[in-house]
Amino acid sequence: MEKALRVLDDMASAGIEPNVVTYGTLVDGYCRSGRIDDGLMLFREMLHKRVEPTTVTYNIILNGLFHAGRTVAAKMFHEMIKSGITVSISTYMIIHGGLCRNSHADEAITLFQKLGAMDVKLDVTILNTMINAMFKVQRREEANDLFAAISASGLVPNASTYGKNIQNLLEEGSLEEADDMFSSMEKSGCAPSSCLLNFIIRTLLKKGEIVKAGNYLYSYKKHT
């Protein structure tokens, strides 16, 4: 990073104004190295110098802020919208994932509902994140409705969709529903990961469900 900053200083000395790509690269470097305050300062400097950020630039700083646990990223997201910058699917993924990781699931769900009203086309990754968030804040019925809506909207549930649902069902003690979801997963052709099978077996053993755990152990051997 220090070498990169020296290049920036050299550009300034030569009268060359750094463009949005240069700033974006440096901000990304700061974020990746955990120096989020420096990255944010450079981003603000870019705005001050009237270098217009792109969708990619905003995605970089938003992602960095959320990974650092800075929920001020949500405020910056609204600034992005007000400025007229195009919001991409990647941006929505960063926002939803960041809010959920930082225990702001209700905010993520509210944003998700607004996007639905705006008819924004969302992919299965965002829907998976929302289903998981709804379970975390005990909005189980909405999570079930959203899972059903995936296929209805022409999307295909993937291994992560099934896996997150199974884990959440097991954690709340809905063992029969978890079994049904696992059966649906196998019928759909999605192979469960060893990580998921380990989680299922471990959870069932903790709950004293020895026979069920044995059945999943058979599945584990079949899939590995």
TrEMBL record:
The keyword Transit peptide applies. It holds the Pfam family PPR_3. Keywords: Repeat, Transit peptide. PPR repeats lie at residues 19-53, 123-157, 158-192. The keyword Repeat applies. Belongs to the PPR family. P subfamily. NCBIfam families: PPR (TIGR00756). This is Pentacotripeptide-repeat region of PRORP domain-containing protein.
